[in-house]
Design a protein that fits this description.
about 180 residues, alpha+beta, 2 domains, three-stranded antiparallel beta sheet, 7 strands, about 45% helix, elongated, transmembrane, transmembrane helix, STM3941-like, membrane
Length: about 180
């Protein structure tokens, strides 16, 4: 039997609204700077920020429309969906989980026996995302607990599979 866990739609909608407003504000500020003819560097920086925000907003919108489970647990293993995650991983490949916080967001890091095997399967963009996690001292794969709907049910389901939680990491600490 599969157990599916989704991102909280309410939190995703709020993030979408916030990013949309921030994007509009960034474009507005860039236009004001362009019309004034001063602060060319700030105008370019603000325009680049707005483009990055558009990409983030698009990603959240895509997740809202698809509304696929972010995590699927089964007797055979776990499926991790989302950017920078490996897809299906059998339980035999797991060492455990590492909960951690970073900048007010909570994550459940996933420690695999052969992480490189799963990293090699990822697209170039996803590998860069995973590499960023590793350079910051965090596990390459993770589940965002801040957006996970029914977090308590998720942890109860994880207990059934007896995958250990290895260590606690405080904010700002590295593995």
């Amino acid at each position: 039997m599969e157990e599916k866990f989704y991102n909280s739609k309410t939190k995703m909608v709020l993030a979408f609204i916030f990013l949309t407003l921030l994007t509009i504000g960034s474009f507005y500020f860039a236009i004001i700077l362009a019309l004034s003819g001063e602060e060319i560097f700030m105008m370019i920086f603000t325009f680049i920020l707005a483009i990055i925000l558009i990409l983030c907003t698009y990603t959240i919108l895509k997740r809202l429309i698809k509304h696929e489970p972010i995590v699927i647990l089964s007797k055979n293993g776990i499926t991790l969906n989302g950017p920078g995650n490996p897809g299906f991983v059998p339980w035999e490949d797991f060492e455990g989980f590492v909960p951690y916080k970073y900048q007010m967001s909570r994550f459940l890091g996933i420690i695999l026996k052969n992480e490189e095997h799963y990293i090699d399967k990822l697209s170039g963009r996803a590998r860069k995302l995973v590499g960023l996690n590793q350079r910051m001292g965090f596990p390459p794969f993770n589940i965002s607990l801040s957006y996970l709907k029914n977090e308590n049910e998720f942890f109860e389901a994880l207990e059934k599979y007896e995958i250990p939680i290895l260590i606690q990491i405080e904010e700002g600490q590295n593995l």
